[in-house]
Every structure is written in C-alpha cells, then in structure tokens.
Specification:
2 domains; four-stranded antiparallel beta sheet; 145 residues
Length: 145
C-alpha cells in the first residue's frame, strides 16, 4: 500500500498509528494517495521509502515522502488456549476494566475487536501476573487483509 508521510518520519521500519486526517487534508490533491488508503486506528509499518517528495503544509518541513506500508504486527495478550503459532484467531479483548501494568497489551493500539489475525509468534506462553486471574499468552498478531 502506498501513502505519504512527513519527511522526518519517512524511515524504513518505522511504525506509526494513523488516527485521522487533518482538516487541511480535505481539499488536498494528494488526499486519495495519502490518507484515504489508511484506516483510522491502525498501526502501519514503513517497508520502503521512495525518493519522490510532495509539498504538505501540515508537516514540519512542509514535505512528505512517498512510502510503502503494511499493517503492523501487534503484540498483545490472548487466551492461552488459543495461542498456537501459525493459527488464526479473531481478536477479542478481555472482559476487564482494571488499569494494570499490562493494560496496553490487552487493549493494544492498532487492533480492533473481531480482527482476523494469524499468530506470528508466541513470546511468552503463560503470563502469571494477570490481575483478573486470566490465563494469557503474549503473542505477535498479523492482521489478515
């Protein structure tokens, strides 16, 4: 997928969260190739930075680079019974309202409920410190397109 990103941010392997387009983007001639290809609330990883630049008034140096991106892999916690490398899961956040030290792993940015994902890696097959007592594994998920 091709998009545009500020010159200072255009670095291979950079991961960024796309929140939403700025108001200034509404009338921009590059809107289609820049922000309309991205989904709000998703994390993206830059795969390649191209030499082509375009003007953009919302970035610090008023320039954007053309970059190739894909949805970034997300590190999260899932039920230990579902955590097998290579398997497909539908992401379901835990039923939890505790703001513990692991909250960011149970409710990670870039991942939405019911996303169909492949487990790319099992980092830790059993997290013992869950405040709710859930049996969780720390995994890396790849969102399926």
């Amino acid at each position: 997928m091709i998009t545009l990103i500020g010159e200072d941010l255009a670095k291979k392997d950079l991961v960024f969260l796309f929140n939403k387009a700025a108001e200034e983007c509404d009338d921009c001639k590059f809107k289609t190739s820049c922000v309309e290809s991205l989904e709000e609330g998703r994390k993206y990883k830059i795969l390649d930075v191209r030499d082509n630049q375009q003007p953009c008034p919302i970035h610090d140096k008023e320039k954007v680079n053309v970059v190739e991106v894909e949805k970034a892999n997300i590190t999260t916690f899932i039920d230990v019974k579902k955590s097998f490398q290579g398997s497909t899961v539908n992401y379901t956040p835990p039923d939890c309202n505790i703001k513990c030290i692991y909250h960011e792993f149970c409710f990670p940015d870039g991942l939405k409920e019911s996303d169909k994902c492949t487990i790319e890696e099992v980092i830790d097959d059993h997290i013992n410190e869950c405040a709710k007592g859930y049996s969780l594994s720390k995994v890396v998920l790849k969102i399926k397109e």
